[in-house]
Design brief:
It is a single chain. It is built from 8 helices and 6 strands, in the order βαβααααβαβββαα. The protein is of the alpha/beta class and 236 residues long. It has 2 domains: 8-44 and 103-229, 3-Layer(aba) Sandwich (Rossmann fold), CATH 3.40.50.300; 48-100, no CATH class. Helix 5 (104-111) packs parallel to helix 6 (126-136) and helix 7 packs antiparallel against helix 8.
Length: 236
């Protein structure tokens, strides 16, 4: 393992479709940016999408427009009769991983990291998560498992059509938060992230660095309180 940079941290969200990963990622980026922090939004599947577009001769612009359209789960002629999700799964599980390894997309994601806080809104496979964690070091990594609460019941990946699942490993720093589609979800997420930032600050101080990612940790609690005035929209 290479020596990780002490000015890079990763926060990765793990949960089924519709659990709020994209929303909370965007919210965290806004909060941290307002605090003067360098924040970068990534997706582990970015390389996968690019490869799928290349294989099916589709531009990334056309893919992105279609993926955020209500018809994204319909079979498409350009994808050989597959839905967009099915096309991604096929390229990932049939084309890439058998030939290049289960951690291929994690290696690519690890190489994409930048100085500052790197937010991933789509963590889902253990080998990929480990690659990203190793790129920054365990002390600078946090996996946030998001559990949606719908009609009084916690929902998981079952029946979602998503081949990913919850990653639960003792050696991967993680926290579980419940999305009840109120602001308590965001507050709980911020609390978990604040713990990571505190650990990171301690590491930077030990290394004699003065370019800390989060200069004032306690501002996270203030940011959490201020969020109640923002418009929810807690689904991805």
């Amino acid at each position: 393992m290479s020596n990780p940079s002490p000015v890079r941290s990763v926060i990765m969200f793990n949960g089924p479709p519709g659990c709020g990963k994209d929303f909370v990622t965007a919210t965290m980026k806004e909060v941290m940016t307002d605090m003067g922090t360098a924040v970068h939004h990534h997706e582990v599947k970015n390389r996968l999408i690019n490869l799928t577009c290349l294989i099916h001769d589709i531009s990334r612009e056309e893919w992105d427009q279609s993926y955020h359209h209500p018809t994204k789960d319909m079979p498409r002629i350009k994808l050989g009769g597959l839905t967009m999700r099915q096309a991604l799964i096929h390229v990932s599980e049939t084309v890439i991983k058998p030939n290049f390894g289960q951690n291929y997309f994690g290696r690519a994601a690890g190489k994409s990291l930048k100085d500052g806080v790197n937010l991933f809104s789509d963590g889902g496979f253990e080998p990929e998560i480990r690659e990203v964690m190793n790129a920054v070091g365990r002390d600078n990594f946090l996996l946030v498992r998001v559990h949606p609460l719908i009609d009084g019941e916690l929902k998981g990946f079952e029946g979602s059509g998503d081949s990913r699942g919850y990653v639960m490993c003792d050696d991967i720093p993680s926290v579980d938060v419940v999305n009840d589609y109120t602001w308590s979800f965001v507050h709980a997420t911020i609390d978990g992230i604040a713990e990571l930032m505190e650990r990171h600050e301690e590491r930077c101080e030990e290394a004699g660095r003065n370019d800390l990612i989060i200069p004032v940790i306690h501002q996270m609690s203030k940011a959490s309180a201020d969020l109640v005035n923002r418009d929810p929209g807690l689904q991805d």
